[in-house]
Write a structure and sequence with these properties.
- The chain is of the alpha+beta class and 267 residues long.
- It has two domains: 147 residues, D-Maltodextrin-Binding Protein, domain 2 (3-Layer(aba) Sandwich), CATH 3.40.190; 87 residues, D-Maltodextrin-Binding Protein, domain 2 (3-Layer(aba) Sandwich).
- It has a five-stranded mixed sheet with strand order 11-10-12-9-13. Strands 6, 7, 8 and 14 form a four-stranded antiparallel sheet that branches. A three-stranded antiparallel sheet has the order 2-3-4, with helices on one face.
- Helix 5 links the parallel strand 10 and strand 11.
- Helix 2 packs antiparallel against helix 9.
- The chain is elongated and about 55 Å long.
Length: 267
Amino acid sequence: MVSHSRMISTAAWFVAFLTVMLLVAQTLPGTAAVPIKVLRVGADPDYRPTSGTEKSGKMVGSDVDFATALASRLGVPLHYEGVAWDGIIPALLARKIDAITAMVITDKRKEVVAFSRPHTFQTITTVVRANSPSNFNPAKNDLSRLKVGVMVSTSAAQALEDIPSVKPITYNTVADEYNDLILGRIDVVVIESVNAGYTTTTIYPGKLRVTNKDLTGKPSYTGVALRKEDTQLREAIDAAINAMIKDGSLNRVYKKWYGDVSMVPSQ
Protein backbone atom coordinates (compact mmCIF):
# COMPACT_ATOMS: atom_id res chain seq x y z
CA MET A 1 0.00 0.00 0.00
CA VAL A 2 1.07 3.57 -0.71
CA SER A 3 1.80 5.41 2.53
CA HIS A 4 -0.23 8.45 3.53
CA SER A 5 2.92 10.61 3.50
CA ARG A 6 3.79 9.38 -0.02
CA MET A 7 0.30 10.36 -1.24
CA ILE A 8 0.66 13.84 0.28
CA SER A 9 4.08 14.21 -1.33
CA THR A 10 2.74 13.16 -4.72
CA ALA A 11 -0.21 15.57 -4.44
CA ALA A 12 2.10 18.43 -3.47
CA TRP A 13 4.33 17.68 -6.48
CA PHE A 14 1.32 17.66 -8.79
CA VAL A 15 0.11 21.04 -7.49
CA ALA A 16 3.60 22.48 -7.98
CA PHE A 17 3.69 21.07 -11.51
CA LEU A 18 0.34 22.68 -12.39
CA THR A 19 1.53 26.02 -11.00
CA VAL A 20 4.63 25.94 -13.20
CA MET A 21 2.57 25.03 -16.27
CA LEU A 22 0.20 27.94 -15.67
CA LEU A 23 3.16 30.29 -15.49
CA VAL A 24 4.60 28.86 -18.70
CA ALA A 25 1.24 29.38 -20.43
CA GLN A 26 1.59 33.11 -19.78
CA THR A 27 5.25 33.31 -20.77
CA LEU A 28 6.66 34.62 -24.03
CA PRO A 29 9.90 33.10 -25.34
CA GLY A 30 12.84 34.91 -23.77
CA THR A 31 10.79 36.86 -21.23
CA ALA A 32 9.39 36.54 -17.74
CA ALA A 33 5.78 35.49 -17.20
CA VAL A 34 3.16 38.06 -18.17
CA PRO A 35 2.24 39.63 -14.80
CA ILE A 36 -1.41 40.39 -15.61
CA LYS A 37 -4.55 38.34 -16.15
CA VAL A 38 -6.30 40.95 -18.36
CA LEU A 39 -4.75 43.70 -20.47
CA ARG A 40 -6.74 46.84 -19.63
CA VAL A 41 -6.17 49.47 -22.33
CA GLY A 42 -7.37 53.06 -22.34
CA ALA A 43 -7.79 55.12 -25.51
CA ASP A 44 -9.27 58.36 -26.81
CA PRO A 45 -12.91 57.48 -27.60
CA ASP A 46 -13.10 59.91 -30.53
CA TYR A 47 -9.83 59.83 -32.45
CA ARG A 48 -10.58 58.04 -35.70
CA PRO A 49 -9.15 56.04 -37.32
CA THR A 50 -6.89 55.20 -34.37
CA SER A 51 -9.78 54.72 -31.95
CA GLY A 52 -13.43 55.70 -32.14
CA THR A 53 -16.81 54.74 -30.73
CA GLU A 54 -19.66 53.38 -32.84
CA LYS A 55 -23.30 54.09 -32.07
CA SER A 56 -23.52 50.69 -30.41
CA GLY A 57 -20.81 51.77 -27.97
CA LYS A 58 -18.25 49.41 -29.47
CA MET A 59 -14.80 50.91 -30.04
CA VAL A 60 -13.10 50.35 -33.38
CA GLY A 61 -9.92 51.53 -35.04
CA SER A 62 -6.36 50.60 -35.87
CA ASP A 63 -5.34 50.77 -32.21
CA VAL A 64 -8.20 48.47 -31.22
CA ASP A 65 -6.92 45.92 -33.73
CA PHE A 66 -3.34 46.35 -32.51
CA ALA A 67 -4.32 46.01 -28.84
CA THR A 68 -6.38 42.91 -29.66
CA ALA A 69 -3.42 41.30 -31.41
CA LEU A 70 -1.08 42.33 -28.59
CA ALA A 71 -3.28 40.82 -25.88
CA SER A 72 -3.51 37.62 -27.91
CA ARG A 73 0.29 37.45 -28.09
CA LEU A 74 0.49 37.96 -24.34
CA GLY A 75 -2.02 35.18 -23.81
CA VAL A 76 -4.53 37.30 -21.88
CA PRO A 77 -7.98 38.78 -22.64
CA LEU A 78 -8.29 42.44 -23.65
CA HIS A 79 -10.43 45.07 -21.94
CA TYR A 80 -10.43 48.18 -24.15
CA GLU A 81 -12.20 51.35 -22.98
CA GLY A 82 -12.53 55.00 -23.87
CA VAL A 83 -10.81 57.45 -21.53
CA ALA A 84 -10.75 61.25 -21.91
CA TRP A 85 -7.34 62.03 -23.38
CA ASP A 86 -6.50 64.77 -20.88
CA GLY A 87 -6.98 62.26 -18.07
CA ILE A 88 -5.50 59.16 -19.66
CA ILE A 89 -2.04 59.29 -18.06
CA PRO A 90 -3.54 59.93 -14.58
CA ALA A 91 -5.81 56.90 -15.19
CA LEU A 92 -2.73 54.80 -15.99
CA LEU A 93 -0.83 55.98 -12.91
CA ALA A 94 -3.91 55.36 -10.73
CA ARG A 95 -4.02 51.74 -12.03
CA LYS A 96 -7.44 52.15 -13.60
CA ILE A 97 -5.87 50.87 -16.83
CA ASP A 98 -2.65 48.97 -17.55
CA ALA A 99 -1.57 50.52 -20.82
CA ILE A 100 -2.11 53.20 -23.45
CA THR A 101 -1.32 51.34 -26.66
CA ALA A 102 -1.21 54.37 -28.99
CA MET A 103 0.80 57.25 -27.56
CA VAL A 104 3.45 59.32 -29.34
CA ILE A 105 6.77 58.98 -27.55
CA THR A 106 8.15 62.31 -26.31
CA ASP A 107 10.85 63.27 -23.82
CA LYS A 108 8.28 65.06 -21.67
CA ARG A 109 6.06 61.99 -21.44
CA LYS A 110 9.09 59.82 -20.62
CA GLU A 111 9.44 61.78 -17.40
CA VAL A 112 6.11 60.34 -16.22
CA VAL A 113 5.62 56.99 -17.97
CA ALA A 114 7.69 54.24 -19.56
CA PHE A 115 7.33 53.24 -23.20
CA SER A 116 7.60 49.98 -25.04
CA ARG A 117 9.71 49.78 -28.14
CA PRO A 118 7.99 51.74 -30.97
CA HIS A 119 5.36 49.86 -32.95
CA THR A 120 4.55 52.60 -35.49
CA PHE A 121 6.14 55.74 -36.86
CA GLN A 122 4.88 58.75 -38.77
CA THR A 123 6.62 61.08 -41.18
CA ILE A 124 5.75 64.17 -43.19
CA THR A 125 5.33 62.86 -46.71
CA THR A 126 3.82 63.66 -50.11
CA VAL A 127 0.69 62.53 -51.93
CA VAL A 128 0.24 62.64 -55.70
CA ARG A 129 -2.42 61.58 -58.19
CA ALA A 130 -2.63 57.82 -58.69
CA ASN A 131 -2.28 58.24 -62.46
CA SER A 132 1.02 60.12 -62.11
CA PRO A 133 4.12 58.39 -63.53
CA SER A 134 5.39 55.72 -61.14
CA ASN A 135 8.71 57.57 -60.82
CA PHE A 136 7.00 60.81 -59.76
CA ASN A 137 7.65 60.69 -56.03
CA PRO A 138 8.39 64.27 -54.91
CA ALA A 139 10.95 64.56 -52.12
CA LYS A 140 12.10 67.64 -50.22
CA ASN A 141 14.37 68.94 -52.98
CA ASP A 142 11.65 68.62 -55.63
CA LEU A 143 9.02 70.79 -53.97
CA SER A 144 10.38 74.21 -54.94
CA ARG A 145 9.47 73.62 -58.60
CA LEU A 146 6.01 72.20 -57.93
CA LYS A 147 2.61 73.54 -56.91
CA VAL A 148 2.35 72.36 -53.33
CA GLY A 149 -0.76 72.18 -51.16
CA VAL A 150 -0.85 71.89 -47.38
CA MET A 151 -3.46 72.17 -44.62
CA VAL A 152 -2.98 75.09 -42.23
CA SER A 153 -1.99 74.58 -38.57
CA THR A 154 -0.60 71.07 -39.10
CA SER A 155 2.77 69.43 -38.56
CA ALA A 156 3.08 69.31 -42.34
CA ALA A 157 2.60 73.09 -42.62
CA GLN A 158 5.19 73.60 -39.91
CA ALA A 159 7.64 71.38 -41.80
CA LEU A 160 7.23 73.45 -44.95
CA GLU A 161 8.13 76.59 -43.03
CA ASP A 162 11.62 75.11 -42.77
CA ILE A 163 11.89 74.97 -46.57
CA PRO A 164 11.99 78.68 -47.57
CA SER A 165 12.05 77.93 -51.30
CA VAL A 166 8.54 76.42 -51.10
CA LYS A 167 5.52 78.73 -51.15
CA PRO A 168 2.58 76.39 -50.60
CA ILE A 169 -1.08 76.96 -51.28
CA THR A 170 -2.83 76.58 -47.94
CA TYR A 171 -6.16 74.87 -47.25
CA ASN A 172 -8.52 74.69 -44.30
CA THR A 173 -9.44 71.02 -44.79
CA VAL A 174 -7.83 67.86 -46.10
CA ALA A 175 -10.77 67.38 -48.48
CA ASP A 176 -10.13 70.74 -50.16
CA GLU A 177 -6.44 70.10 -50.80
CA TYR A 178 -7.07 66.57 -52.08
CA ASN A 179 -9.86 67.74 -54.39
CA ASP A 180 -7.56 70.36 -55.92
CA LEU A 181 -4.89 67.71 -56.36
CA ILE A 182 -7.31 65.38 -58.14
CA LEU A 183 -8.43 68.28 -60.40
CA GLY A 184 -4.81 69.09 -61.28
CA ARG A 185 -4.78 72.54 -59.69
CA ILE A 186 -1.77 71.53 -57.59
CA ASP A 187 0.93 68.90 -58.16
CA VAL A 188 1.40 67.48 -54.71
CA VAL A 189 0.02 67.56 -51.17
CA VAL A 190 2.33 67.59 -48.16
CA ILE A 191 0.74 65.81 -45.20
CA GLU A 192 1.32 63.54 -42.19
CA SER A 193 1.85 59.97 -43.40
CA VAL A 194 -0.77 58.23 -41.21
CA ASN A 195 -3.45 60.71 -42.28
CA ALA A 196 -2.32 60.26 -45.88
CA GLY A 197 -2.55 56.50 -45.68
CA TYR A 198 -6.01 56.47 -44.15
CA THR A 199 -7.66 59.10 -46.33
CA THR A 200 -6.21 57.88 -49.62
CA THR A 201 -7.20 54.29 -48.82
CA THR A 202 -10.73 54.85 -47.50
CA ILE A 203 -11.93 58.07 -49.13
CA TYR A 204 -10.00 58.35 -52.41
CA PRO A 205 -9.19 54.75 -53.42
CA GLY A 206 -7.61 54.57 -56.86
CA LYS A 207 -7.34 58.35 -57.12
CA LEU A 208 -4.37 59.26 -54.93
CA ARG A 209 -1.06 57.65 -54.05
CA VAL A 210 1.24 58.07 -51.02
CA THR A 211 4.91 58.34 -52.02
CA ASN A 212 6.33 57.47 -48.58
CA LYS A 213 9.03 60.11 -49.04
CA ASP A 214 10.23 61.48 -45.69
CA LEU A 215 10.51 65.27 -45.97
CA THR A 216 12.05 66.01 -42.57
CA GLY A 217 14.11 62.98 -41.54
CA LYS A 218 12.53 63.34 -38.10
CA PRO A 219 9.84 60.69 -37.75
CA SER A 220 7.65 60.59 -34.66
CA TYR A 221 7.26 57.21 -32.99
CA THR A 222 4.30 55.64 -31.20
CA GLY A 223 4.64 53.05 -28.45
CA VAL A 224 2.74 51.49 -25.57
CA ALA A 225 2.76 53.73 -22.48
CA LEU A 226 3.11 51.91 -19.17
CA ARG A 227 3.83 52.64 -15.53
CA LYS A 228 7.58 52.88 -14.93
CA GLU A 229 7.51 50.15 -12.31
CA ASP A 230 5.86 47.63 -14.66
CA THR A 231 9.16 46.44 -16.13
CA GLN A 232 8.09 42.80 -16.47
CA LEU A 233 5.01 43.79 -18.49
CA ARG A 234 7.11 46.10 -20.66
CA GLU A 235 9.55 43.29 -21.44
CA ALA A 236 6.69 40.99 -22.42
CA ILE A 237 5.11 43.66 -24.63
CA ASP A 238 8.45 44.41 -26.30
CA ALA A 239 8.85 40.71 -27.09
CA ALA A 240 5.30 40.55 -28.49
CA ILE A 241 5.83 43.61 -30.72
CA ASN A 242 9.14 42.21 -31.99
CA ALA A 243 7.40 38.96 -32.91
CA MET A 244 4.56 40.81 -34.67
CA ILE A 245 7.03 42.84 -36.71
CA LYS A 246 9.07 39.76 -37.60
CA ASP A 247 6.15 37.65 -38.83
CA GLY A 248 4.43 40.53 -40.66
CA SER A 249 1.25 40.46 -38.59
CA LEU A 250 1.74 44.04 -37.36
CA ASN A 251 2.05 45.30 -40.92
CA ARG A 252 -1.18 43.47 -41.82
CA VAL A 253 -3.02 45.24 -38.99
CA TYR A 254 -2.03 48.66 -40.29
CA LYS A 255 -2.39 47.85 -43.98
CA LYS A 256 -6.11 47.30 -43.33
CA TRP A 257 -6.48 50.91 -42.17
CA TYR A 258 -3.69 52.80 -43.96
CA GLY A 259 -2.95 50.95 -47.17
CA ASP A 260 0.66 50.91 -48.35
CA VAL A 261 1.92 53.77 -46.20
CA SER A 262 5.18 52.93 -44.41
CA MET A 263 4.61 53.00 -40.66
CA VAL A 264 6.05 49.84 -39.05
CA PRO A 265 9.61 50.22 -37.70
CA SER A 266 12.24 47.68 -38.61
CA GLN A 267 13.57 45.17 -36.08
